[in-house]
């Protein structure tokens, strides 16, 4: 097929888009935000037709020729050279980005918006008419401020929609969202032939209605009720907004209290942010119809992408700092579906050198006897001490938290009986805590001794 026919055929699919969701993670880090900043965003690409998406490395100084403009056969050619390299989610075999992240940590994305009315191209306006918004911004902007300045120098126009025998087969109504490594967000919508820019107004963007209407509906939502559950643009917008707000508040409370999050006991701040974003974006993944073909998590500070596809939920990672954006010969692409769809750990479980195991329970009668052991003899101002679960050596005394169970000021008979009950309950609780602590200490000591062997084991397994 001739390249011109390919372009026309490819553009014809855009009118079928009815989905996509995007958000900037509301993340509270437990360390200095300057020492370890977390700026993570995510999006889904929901589409009925196969986009044939590829991840493509676009080096610096790549020459671009812009798409033709709808209703403007006389619009002059527009081309540019990229200032920054980036990884683009290019579709239909064309160097036309639907999403991407550049080497400066800036992302740009297109999403469907019914009701879009682009700027009308004017020959009297000397500004170039731009139809490839995402590709242009990824290649020429480092920050949201750069994007705003660039928009002032351009006419944002509609890409040409194809026709068959003069029949209108659809338009390409889009709006755009940009995030940078500083955590700034810019939403760009074209309504009534005018550009509307919303900076840091909303962390979430989906589809119709326009953003100002979405925000008004969100404000009117009764947040005490269950989260909206359908896949409509409004419900996806509201669901992501509520969950994103809640996850930020929950972490902020735990960080302020100093309480650890046991689910991430072995995770890093980076891992926590990426998995949080995955959990949230998965709540708006569309399984059927205009289904989610792929989703991406973008780490703007570390310049890293994590990609999942409909039938491959294993995250595929792309580290932009490891790519060569200097040479034109480094331009290459892989399908978005690239990579294995599972991680096989059978070898690790069958490896003879792996001696890790859990601790077997003693007979039930032993546990019952321990739980029914008599309480310690009561004395004035006696207190129960909770041992530290992470105590490496039980022979050393450790700081403890004390809960007073008996006070010398007790003077009534009923208080004495209550004290005995409390002591019994305290002893039972103490036995359980000591047992759990012993298991944890033993397991950690065992794992520590095992660590060197584990590394050796994995090297043997992974070495051909």
What does this 3D model show about the protein?
This protein is of the alpha+beta class and 464 residues long. The protein has 2 domains: 3-343, Penicillin V Acylase, Chain A, CATH 3.60.60.10; 364-462, no CATH class. The protein has 9 helices and 22 strands. A hairpin with a 6-residue loop joins β6 (86-90) and β7. The longest helix is centred in the last third of the chain and has 50 residues, at 413-462.
The gist of it:
By secondary structure, the protein is of the alpha+beta class.
Number of helices: 9
The assembly state of the depicted protein chains is single chain
The major pleated sheet works out as:
8 strands, antiparallel
Structural class by SSE content: alpha+beta
Helical content band: 25-40%
- Residue-averaged pLDDT, rounded? 78
Shape: globular
* N- and C-termini, Cα separation: 43 Å
Q: How many E-type strands?
A: 22
InterPro entries: CBAH/NAAA_C (IPR029132), Ntn_hydrolases_N (IPR029055), Peptidase_C59 (IPR052193)
Family: Belongs to the peptidase C59 family.
Domain Choloylglycine hydrolase/NAAA C-terminal: 34-222
Protein name: Choloylglycine hydrolase/NAAA C-terminal domain-containing protein
């Amino acid at each position: 097929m001739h390249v011109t026919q390919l372009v026309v055929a490819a553009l014809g699919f855009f009118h079928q888009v009815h989905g996509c969701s995007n958000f900037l993670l509301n993340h509270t880090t437990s360390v200095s935000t300057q020492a370890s900043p977390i700026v993570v965003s995510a999006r889904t690409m929901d589409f009925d037709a196969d986009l044939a998406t590829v991840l493509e490395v676009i080096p610096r100084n790549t020459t671009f020729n812009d798409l033709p403009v709808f209703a403007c056969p006389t619009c002059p050619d527009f081309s540019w050279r990229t200032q920054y390299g980036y990884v683009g989610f290019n579709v239909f075999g064309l160097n036309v980005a639907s999403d991407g992240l550049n080497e400066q940590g800036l992302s740009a994305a297109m999403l469907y918006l019914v009701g879009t009315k682009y700027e009308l191209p004017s020959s009297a306006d000397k500004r170039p008419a731009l139809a490839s918004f995402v590709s242009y911004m990824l290649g020429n902007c480092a920050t949201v401020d750069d994007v705003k300045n660039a928009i002032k120098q351009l006419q944002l126009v509609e890409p040409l929609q194809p026709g068959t025998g003069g029949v209108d087969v659809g338009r390409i109504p889009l709006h755009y969202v940009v995030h940078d490594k500083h955590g700034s967000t810019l939403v760009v919508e074209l309504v009534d032939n005018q550009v509307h820019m919303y900076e840091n107004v909303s962390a979430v963007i989906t589809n119709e209605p326009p953003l100002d209407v979405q925000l008004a509906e969100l404000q009117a939502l009764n947040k005490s009720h269950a989260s909206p559950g359908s896949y409509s643009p409004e419900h996806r917008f509201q669901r992501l907004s509520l969950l994103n707000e809640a996850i930020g508040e929950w972490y902020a409370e735990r960080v302020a209290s100093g309480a650890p999050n046991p689910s991430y006991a072995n995770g890093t701040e980076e891992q926590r942010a990426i998995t949080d974003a995955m959990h949230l974006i998965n709540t708006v993944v569309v399984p059927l119809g205009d289904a989610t073909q792929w989703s991406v998590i973008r780490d703007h500070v570390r310049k890293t992408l994590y990609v999942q596809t409909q039938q491959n939920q294993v995250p595929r990672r792309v580290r932009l700092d490891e790519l060569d954006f200097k040479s034109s010969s480094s331009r290459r692409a892989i399908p978005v579906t690239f990579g294995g769809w599972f991680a096989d750990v059978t070898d690790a479980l069958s490896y003879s050198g792996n001696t890790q195991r859990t601790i077997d329970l003693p007979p039930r009668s032993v546990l019952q006897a321990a739980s029914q052991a008599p309480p310690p003899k009561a004395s004035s101002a006696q207190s129960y001490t909770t041992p530290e679960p992470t105590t490496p050596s039980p022979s050393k005394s450790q700081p403890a938290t004390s809960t007073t169970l008996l006070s010398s000021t007790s003077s009534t008979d009923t208080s004495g009986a209550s004290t005995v009950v409390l002591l019994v309950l305290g002893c039972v609780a103490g036995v359980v805590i000591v047992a759990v602590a012993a298991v944890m200490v033993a397991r950690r000591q065992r794992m520590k001794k095992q660590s060197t062997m584990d590394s050796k084991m994995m090297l043997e397994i992974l070495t051909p």
